[in-house]
Structure formats: structure tokens, C-alpha cells
Amino acid sequence: MELLPEDIERFMADGTYQKAVVKLKELGFAYVTLDLEGYRMGSMNEVLKG
Questions:
Q1: Three-state DSSP class for 5?
Q2: What is the pTM of this model?
Q3: Would the CA dihedral through 25, 27, 29, 30 be positive or negative?
């Protein structure tokens, strides 16, 4: 799931995030995290650098 920066505050404030966590765990996800840097092309390769 990806949110626009201007939607993050509303997502957190109105409790929608809690519903999302419950649903994702029902679908089998063990962890639900928030990437504060957002989508970045090639970010999965960052651990391989350096």
C-alpha cells in the first residue's frame, strides 16, 4: 500500500491504519511496517551497497 504524503496524517488520525493492520494480518502478513522514505526505485538493492 502506498499513500501520498498529504494523506498520511489522515490515515493515521482517523484510525484507518488500525483497520489496515488487522486486514493485512488476516491475509497472513506477520509484520506491518511504515517506510517513511516511501517508494524508491532500486531500494531493495540498498543493503547490497556499501
A1: helix
A2: 0.64
A3: positive
Number of neighbouring beta carbons within 10 Å of residue 17: 16
- Single-letter amino acid, residue 34: L
Q: Model confidence over 16-28: pLDDT tens digits?
A: 999 999 999 999 9
- Among residues 3, 32, 6, 9, the alpha carbon closest in space to that of 19 is found at 32
What's the CA gap between 48 and 14, in Å, rounded? 38
Residue 14 has pLDDT above 70, yes or no: yes
What is d(CA 1, CA 35) in angstroms, rounded to the nearest whole number?
A: 11
> What cell was used for 40?
524508491
